[in-house]
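ARCHIVE CARD
SHELF: 3
SLOT: left
DATA:
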Amino acid sequence: MAAKTTYSIIAIAVLAVAGYALVMPRWTDGPGTAPDNPAGEFLVEVTVPTLTGTAKIGETAFNAKCAACHGENAAGLDGKAPPLIHKIYEPSHHGDMSFQMAVQNGVRSHHWPFGDMAPVEGLTKADVKNIVAYVRSLQQANGIF
């Protein structure tokens, strides 16, 4: 009886994951989404607000360590890495700590077809906190809360 229950739970989980894959966010036009672009181009258009304080400091760190993959202003790069200016990365889905963990441990590919992200060396927790402030400022300016 326990085996049937276990198999039922596994089957439900597999169906749920498959169902999510069918309806997961797709590229569409608008803030935080991407139009069809040739390889290597930015994936989203980003409105950049006036940056101050930790967000301005974070911009410098982002440009030094993250922009090569995630693109200028976190717009993503086709064929490289996803845009961070996307509803998937809103604070209620990917909290600030998820950025700290991604930098420290890397990330297995789960939302996008870009492959795994390696850990990022040379960033302190304070650096990542500033980068998050920068990304959150960009997100807010683009309607992602």
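SLOT: right
DATA:
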Amino acid sequence: MKESLKSEIKKLTDEAQIVYVSSVNQQGFPNTKAMLYIIHGGLKTHYLSTNYSSKRVAQFLENPKACLYFCNEAAFKGLMLTGTMEVCTDRSHKEMLWKEGFEMYYPNGIDDEDYCVFKFTATEGNYYHGLSNVTFPVEEL
């Protein structure tokens, strides 16, 4: 993959404030939700926080297959990553994402039982821009 394309993909994920997260429901249908994008460890690993009591957590505990979608609507660029989602409830993951103000959602603070972290591990990507569509193994970047 060309360095310019790698740079475009990295910029898209670095600038993202919202990411679309897809899970699979009990009937086998995809479910997609917009979530605040928190942090990533390169293109392969992404972290988001959510409520443990959410529908999405239950879906990922049953079926870890997942998809993240990043987009820049104005430039008509999109990146789809497929992989697996892990639901993390350990303190180290929770500390990694905790931000001041989260107390509004999690009144018991970082140890609130309803606070958890999604850890997404990508295996494949598909990048779209300028009538070009490139599928690649995430290891390639």
